[in-house]
Amino acid sequence: MRAEVREIDADGEAELVERVAAVDVAKASGMVCTRVPHASVAGRRVTRAWEVRTTTNAILALAEELAREGIERVVVESTSDYWRPFVYLLEARGLSVWLVNAREVKQVPGRAKTDTLDSVWLAKLNERGMLRPSFVPPAEIRRLRDYTRLRADLVEDRSRQIQRLEKLLEDALIKLSTVATDILGVSGRAMIDALIAGERDPQLLAELARGRMRVKRAALVEALTGRFDDHHAELASMLLDQIDALSAKTAALTLRIDELIAEIPAARAPVVRPGAGPGGHLDDPAAAPLSVVARLDEIAGVGVRAAQVIVAEVGLDMAQFPTAGHLVSWTKLSPRTIQSGPRSRSGKTGKGNPYLKGVLGEAAAAAAKTDTFLGERYRRLVRRRGKLKALVAVARSILVIVWHLLADPAARYHDLGSDFYANRINKNRKTRQLVRQLEALGHHVTLEPLDMAA
Asked: Are the C-beta atoms of residues 200 and 210 closer than 8 Å to each other?
């Protein structure tokens, strides 16, 4: 199906991009629109729209056709995952391809909405420079991202299976989770295996406790007294098989992720000539160059797995994010102001990248418990802003640190210390503030320096 439309821009505006194309993506097909100058009439634009199947051969043929027409830029609407074949194959042909957020290219309300009109509208926005490209990482980072995201999904699946196992034990009146923090720890797993094997004596089951669980044997006897029968044993065995299989796959993915990161040249430790390392001291451990994951691991609250996810989601080239603020804004961790006339109010940060925001939230929660600058920042904010906003602020601080470490391969993380704020208090201003508060309570204040009082 092909439709040709010829028109002249009545407003006389000069297009920023002369030869453009746009693709409105669906699952089985995509509506392609090109807008190019008329071959003989100056000022006239030729718009052509047609449907292309989302098969590899059809998209490769489209890429050749767009290249012959001299298309300068192609924009693709990011609909689900259906955009991937268009972006990957058109880029492989050498075309300049922008992936754009569907939320930013909506049609004007009140106009008819068809796939053809959507593609034409997208092409018009493209030629006038009214779109912003989304971040599409290079192939090596996309490959790494597939592994880290699958690992995160399998960890969630494993947690669901553990919850089902706990629910099954509750149905059998086994209250193991009220005594053991982890029902699949060494002691808990031994007790569940014994239950499946046919052991029902609470005293013998409690004797399987190890380590610190042995002091809880009396409580374990009470918790393990229930009605665990054969059908519970059969279901529990199936759930344990699922949990073990997911654990094995997660471990295999972790090994593969380590290998993929090691294969990326930019993720390796930079080569430093003798005597030319940071600080100039070759024997100084703090001056030794580290890999990207090891440098991110130094941040309070960030572990090796979190560092791997950050690399997979953000990439290693910070040219995509000119400043730390751009990265924070893209992640949707920056404050948002909504202004209408004289009124201003704060808005939600937005959804952002769920995998990146999730791991940053976990890192912020871990950093909040440490005696570090980030931990002190959380404790200062939580008193007046609440836990959730304080965690978001700490997550934002972690992301700013990440940007600086990724932007400079030789940079290392140095904690400012939990006394950072205390050492920078303006003593005179703080004194005046406290005096005013006491005077407001009806006290007469006389100040006497400590050295004079001694």
From this structure: no
Mean pLDDT of 230-240: 95
Nearest by Cα to 142 from 311, 268, 297: 311
Q: How far apart are CA 314 and CA 228, in angstroms?
A: 48
Cα separation, 148 vs 308, whole angstroms? 8
Tokens standing for residue 43: 């000022």
pLDDT for residue 195:
94
Looking up tokens 């009214």 gives 130
Alpha carbon distance 61, 141 (integer Å)? 27
Predicted confidence (pLDDT) per residue in 399-423, tens digit: 999 999 999 988 899 989 888 888 8
20-25/73-77 β-pairing:
parallel
Cα 324 from chain centroid (whole Å): 15
The token pair at 186 is: 């060494």
Give every CB contact of residue 47 below 8 A, 6+ residues apart in sequence.
4, 5, 6, 7, 33, 34, 35, 120, 123
Q: How confident is the model over 358-380, as pLDDT tens digits?
A: 999 999 999 999 999 999 999 99
H or E element: which one contains 374?
helix 373-385
**Beta partners for 2?**
50
* Gyration radius from the chain CA atoms: 30
Say how far apart CA 207 and CA 194 lie, in whole Å: 11
- Per domain, the residue ranges of the chain are 2-127, 141-263, 278-407
> How is domain 141-263 classified at the architecture level of CATH?
Orthogonal Bundle (1.10)
3-state secondary structure string, 138-167? CHHHHHHHHHHHHHHHHHHHHHHHHHHHHH
Distance, in Å, from the CA atom of 303 to the CA atom of 318, rounded to the nearest integer, reads 21
How many whole angstroms separate alpha carbon 363 and alpha carbon 384? 21
Q: Cα separation of 75 and 102, whole Å?
A: 11
CA angle 49, 54, 59 (to 5 degrees): 70
CATH architecture of the domain covering 2-127: 2-Layer Sandwich (3.30)
Q: Do domains 2-127 and 141-263 have the same CATH topology?
A: no
Q: Within 10 A of 231 (CB to CB), how many other CB atoms are there?
A: 11
- CA distance linking residue 121 with residue 115, whole number of Å: 10
Cα 31 to Cα 24: distance, rounded to the nearest angstrom: 5
Structure tokens at 60: 């490769």
Question: For residue 372, what are its two tokens?
Answer: 């570090």
